């Protein structure tokens, strides 16, 4: 483990991992250095100086001028001509000898043409560049977006998503909150991995699925295709792999690492993507969780028995906290009382 707390600005500038963060930032190294700086604020000046040092180093691409290219051609043909004349007598060369010379010159010209053509194609090919993008939603707000790889994402309220591709065949997303994904399948089978900042990640090739990473629970629901779940056991760090089929859900508890797989109605779970809240034996406790997740509105109850009140049906999701509270009041026949920015639930 590097003792970065002892580093000077010069030490940081010479450190490869530090250089990678400055020149090629991605989700992982940015998270590491942001966290490290919070723990070591006294090193901020040294880090800022080191960043300037790293960014001040530039590498200039070498390009030949037109005159240099012409000189190169002249040198090539002069060398060919000199080789042709070496060891030859003033008398005319035999036909076979002249034929060998012509064949050699022709082969040399063809090889040179092929080499220059290959070099031109190589220079025309753009090198792979790391791609990083991020987006966030406020409480009461959703966003539909296309990732750089053309995959579609609908980000629910109060959520954050970071996308990175630092290797040609690997696409990675880091999700805090809830999002619905329609992952684009690529011809070269690039993997697509959703990380949850916890011990669970979702790996897919092309599919539709929903990930809810709010609070202490993670719920992954598959609509279409297939996905592989990588779960790191909290006790021995062993990685367990599970596969989901369409219509299956995996629930993961962050507190103890327990998880379970079950059948579910994926269309109901993902109805929020169409602006509907499907309530299947929906309780007041579920409504409170919805208000906290989508609007960051905390609700308490006077009588815990009220939490068990339930309804079934559906209602439109209106991204306005007061309007949704009124809809829940009608659905559950309860009244939400606002007191010092905290909502209390009481019976009518």
Query: How many domains, as an integer?
Result: 3
SS element count, helices: 9
- State the low-pLDDT regions, or none: 58-64, 83-105, 107-116, 118-125
Number of strands: 18
Tell me about this structure.
The longest helix has 30 residues, at 95-124. The protein has helices spanning 9-14, 16-23, 27-39, 44-55, 66-85, 95-124, 266-269, 284-295, 321-332, and strands at residues 131-136, 143-146, 152-155, 160-167, 170-182, 191-195, 200-204, 208-213, 217-224, 227-232, 239-244, 248-253, 259-263, 276-283, 299-301, 310-316, 334-339, 342-347. With 348 residues, the protein is α+β, with helices and mostly antiparallel strands. α8 (284-295) packs antiparallel against α9 (321-332). A hairpin with a 5-residue loop joins β2 and β3. The strands form 3 sheets. Strands 1, 2, 3, 4, 5, 6, 7, 8, 9, 10, 11, 12 and 13 form a 13-stranded mixed beta sheet that branches. The protein has 3 domains: 4-55, no CATH class; 131-268, Jelly Rolls, CATH 2.60.120.1440; 275-347, Phage tail protein beta-alpha-beta fold (3-Layer(bab) Sandwich), CATH 3.55.50. The chain is built from 9 helices and 18 strands. Helix content is 34%, strand content 32%.
